[in-house]
Amino acid sequence: MIKLFHLIGFLLLVTLLTGCSSSRFFELKLNKLTLKKELGDTSLPNLTDLATNEVQTYCLSLPQKTDIGLVLLMRCSKELLARDDLDLPLRSYAVSAYNHALLTLVTTDKQQTDSTNRVILNYPTSSNFTLSDKMRAIDSRLKPVIFGEVGIAIVTARENKKSGIDTYYPLEGIFQDATIVMTRVKKQGDSFEVSLNILMNNDVSTIKMGSNDYVLKHSPGSAYLALIEKANIDDFNWLGFVSPSQAEKRRGVFSIGAISDEKIPLIMLHGLNSDPLIWRYLTMALLNESELMSRYQIWHIYYPTGPPPFYTALRTRDNLRSMLREIDNPSLADNAVIVGHSMGGIITKLLAIKSNLSLWDATFNIPPEALLAGD
C-alpha cells in the first residue's frame, strides 16, 4: 500500500512538472545561427546608377554567410525590387534574397550576446515579437498559414490596458500580426546601422518599392496561436457553471485580431460549462482563409453558464451594443453572423430574433403593465 501511494505521488509530481514546463499549443524552433565577420570590402556602392543586370550581378557576388555580406545583399535585393524592368525569375530571386538576408539578420540579432556586433538593427519601437515561421503548432489543426511574399511575418504583443477599445480584446493581452521590413542601411565607421520598420497588419497588406507593389508576409493565425498559448479563459468554464459570480469578471465580447469598423462580425458563443477555446479549430481555419478574413472579423463571447439563457442573452446584448458604440458603427449588427454551440445556440436564437411580447402573450391573458399596476 505504501509503495502504491509513493507511485501515485510520483505520477502526480511528474504530471505537475510536465504541465508547468511544456507548451500548450506551440513551440518555438530557433536554431542557433552563427555569422562570420566580413573581412573584405565593406563599402556601400551607389546602386541607383547601375543597370538592373549589373545590380543583379553585384547581388550574386555577395557572401551570404557573413554579417556585412547579408546587410549588403538585403540592400542590393531591395534595389532590385524597386526596378521597373523586373521579369518573373528576377523578381523571384530578389524576393528570396531580401527575405533570406532580413530573416537571418533578425534571428541572429535576437540570439546575439556579443556587444561588439558590427551590424546594429534599429527597430521603431520595442522589439518584443515572435517570428511566425519559427512557431510550430503542437496540434496540426492549429497550424497557422503565412500569407504574402515580402518581409518577415511576426507577432507583436502588449498588455491589455483594460480601458477604452482594449476592453474588447482578450485580457491575456493584445496579440497582432505584423511584418518587419528594412527601410535603410547606413554605415557608421566600421559598423552598419540597419533601420527596420514594423508594419501592423490591420487592413494594410501591401508595400510599395519603386512603382511595384508587394504583398507583405503576415500571419493572423500566428497571432491567435500566441494568444491561446497564454490564455487562461478555460479556467473559468466549470467555475462559470458552479459559481457564476466568481466568473463574472471575465464576461464580455473579445475580438480575435484587430477590431474593424467595416468588417462583418462573426460572433461565437460557447455552450454550458465551456469557454471560447472550444472555437480554436474553427477560428484558426477561418484566419487561414485570407478571402474570408478580408470580409469578416471574429468576436468570441465568454459568459458564466450558471444563470438562465434569457439573462445571459440580455447581458450579451448589452455587451455587444456597448462594443458597437465604442467602434462607432451600430449598423455592423445588421449583417453579423452569430454561431452558438449547445446553450450558446439558445442564446444565439434569442439574440437573432425580436420576440417583443409574443412569449408573454402566449403565456398570460393581460399585458405586463396591467399586471404591474394591480394590487
Tell me the layout of helices and strands:
Elements: H1 2-21, E1 26-28, H2 52-61, H3 67-81, H4 88-110, E2 119-122, E3 129-131, E4 135-137, E5 152-158, E6 174-188, E7 191-200, E8 206-209, E9 212-215, H5 220-230, H6 237-242, H7 244-247, E10 252-256, E11 264-269, H8 280-287, H9 290-293, E12 296-302, H10 309-326, E13 337-340, H11 343-352, H12 358-363, H13 368-373
Parallel strand pairs: 2-7, 11-12, 11-13
Antiparallel strand pairs: 1-4, 3-5, 5-6, 6-7, 8-9, 10-12
Helix pairs in contact: 2-3, 3-4, 5-8, 10-11
3D structure, described in words:
The protein is α/β, with parallel strands linked by helices and 375 residues long. Helices cover 38% and strands 20% of the residues. The protein has 13 helices and 13 strands. The protein has helices spanning 2-21, 52-61, 67-81, 88-110, 220-230, 237-242, 244-247, 280-287, 290-293, 309-326, 343-352, 358-363, 368-373; strands at 26-28, 119-122, 129-131, 135-137, 152-158, 174-188, 191-200, 206-209, 212-215, 252-256, 264-269, 296-302, 337-340. Strands 2-7-6-5-3 form a 5-stranded mixed sheet, sandwiched between helices. It has a 4-stranded mixed sheet with strand order 10-12-11-13. The protein is elongated, with a radius of gyration of 27 Å. It starts with a helix and ends with a helix. Mean pLDDT is 89; it is low at 10-21.
